[in-house]
Amino acid sequence: MNSKGIELAASLIVILIASIIIFGLALGITYKIFCASAAKVEQLDSQTEKLVEQKLDSGARVAMPVNTKTAAGSASFCGGGSSPSAAYALGIRNDNTWSTRFTVHCKYEGVEQNDKLTMPDSPSILADCSNVIQQSGDVTLDAKMKTTKIVVINAPPGIEKGTHMFTISVCDKAILPCDSQLGPYQQGVNGFYGAASMYLTIK
What is the DSSP secondary-structure string of 90-106? Predict the structure, then answer.
């Protein structure tokens, strides 16, 4: 093989290697963009935060102004699975004149079918609400302070299609009873501080 042939072969190899590197970088960038968009389900947008602030400033102790979401599944190669999930903004304002520790409870109410709430064919998949709700645990607020927490529902695979309803209850842990085993709190029950309904539509 003459020198020109060797130079041509070497040039082709260099071009091939460079093409592979560029292709790999392009795939990496695409991966990050795609998975970042999938992860947005667990992030708050500024508009939602403003709505929560407005509700709390208007006197609400517990606020979830955007309480209806349509489920979005994350891609398996992003480190997630095909289970649908959705994030909600929960605002809490301490109306007390002392520092207060709050806790958040969740109850699954059922799925809407023909304008009625019914339990799905396999109610056990959502019976334990703690398995499908993620939040950062107890919330301690100084007097008259407020905060916004992200509540994420990760629905299990095979969940029935329709609009599923949850009740989010906020409890004042300084007042007994305040045990997650007792279930969500209602008006007039010791420890109850506020509540919000939450809807997740599975298509």
Answer: EEEE--SSS-EEEEEEE
Beta strands 68-70 and 192-202 are: parallel
Q: Are 151 and 168 in contact (CB under 8 A)?
A: yes
Question: What percent of the chain clears pLDDT 70, i.e. is strictly above it?
Answer: 65
Cβ–Cβ under 8 Å, residues 164 and 85: no
Query: Tell me, what's the pLDDT at 13?
Result: 79
Distances (CA, A) of 100 to 52, 103, 143, 182: 20, 10, 7, 20
What is the percentage of the chain residues whose pLDDT exceeds 90?
17
HSE (side-chain half, CA atoms, 13 Å) at 46 = 0
Q: What pLDDT score was predicted for residue 182? A: 45
What is the value of pTM for the model shown?
0.67
Please state which CATH number belongs to domain 43-202.
2.60.40.10
Distance CA 24, CA 17 (A): 11
Q: Determine the Cα–Cα distance for residues 158 and 31; give it in Å rounded to an integer.
A: 27
Judge contact between 202 and 166, C-beta under 8 A: no
Per domain, the residue ranges of the chain are: 1-41, 43-202
pLDDT of 184 over the 50 cut:
no
Question: Cis peptide leading into 184, omega within 30 of 0?
Answer: no
Residue 74 has pLDDT above 50, yes or no: no
Kindly give, in sequence order, each residue whose CB lies less than 8 Å from that of residue 74, ignoring residues fewer than 6 positions away. 35, 38, 39, 41, 80, 81, 82, 83, 85
